[in-house]
Specification:
two-stranded antiparallel ribbon; 2 strands; 73% helix
Length: 153
């Protein structure tokens, strides 16, 4: 087998697994991190609560953490369900807006200098990889057949 044939086979294999692996990866990250919030075990909880106190101080922190964790688990689960991708991606992008907010609203926590993120800032910035994976999944969806139906084959 020559190099070109090998290259074609590897690329074909990666095309076959790219969407399932992306879906699984997003599921693992969202479900795992979400369940940690539900059980008050997440190292990100102080950051989430600091943002909550700046944006919606009228919501009880414990209630919000559980809700936020359940939402993350739900997003992860949706990525495993064929046909639910549009809903998952829509909720994911809305969620991403909130996750990037600390970079602006809590700079003392997320930046140690100009363009030098703290560990918390890096945790947030890595979400760009999740966004890229979601876009890759969306790029493989078929156009909707009629109206705004989210589930169809």
């Amino acid at each position: 087998m020559n190099y070109r044939t090998f290259d074609i086979k590897v690329l074909h294999f990666f095309r076959l697994i790219s969407v399932p692996i992306s879906r699984l990866g997003i599921f693992v990250v969202f479900f795992w991190f979400g369940i940690l919030k539900v059980f008050s075990l997440s190292p990100a909880s102080p950051l989430v609560l600091a943002l909550l106190s700046r944006t919606m101080p009228f919501i009880p922190p414990e209630t919000f953490l559980v809700f936020f964790g359940v939402l993350e688990c739900f997003i992860g689960l949706l990525f495993l369900i064929k046909g639910a991708e549009r809903i998952a991606i829509t909720i994911l992008f809305l969620h991403m807006i909130t996750t990037f907010m600390p970079l602006i609203l809590l700079p003392q926590v997320t930046w140690s200098g100009i363009l030098v993120p703290t560990l918390e800032g890096q945790y947030i910035i890595k979400n760009l990889a999740i966004i890229a994976a979601a876009i890759g999944i969306a790029a493989h969806l078929h156009p909707l057949q009629r109206g705004w139906r989210f589930f169809y084959q």
